[in-house]
User: Which sequence fits this backbone?
């Protein structure tokens, strides 16, 4: 993924003079997505570190799918 980000950044720098608005849009879009990923990773790390405080046993894959779908509806 780091290689793709580096390629993206190089392309933005290369094309920004001729396609300023398009490059700005993409740059901001990727920035938002990276921030969301970073936030989700923070949440995942905290929850996995403390998983014993939340549940005693593993959750079935069916229940996890349902919970994930419900979370996405928010």
Assistant:
């Amino acid at each position: 993924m780091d290689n793709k980000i580096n390629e993206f950044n190089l392309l933005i720098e290369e094309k920004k003079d001729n396609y300023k608005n398009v490059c700005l849009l993409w740059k901001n879009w990727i920035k938002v997505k990276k921030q969301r990923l970073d936030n989700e990773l923070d949440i995942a790390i905290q929850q996995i570190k403390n998983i014993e405080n939340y549940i005693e046993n593993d959750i079935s894959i069916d229940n996890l799918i349902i919970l994930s779908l419900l979370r996405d509806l928010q």
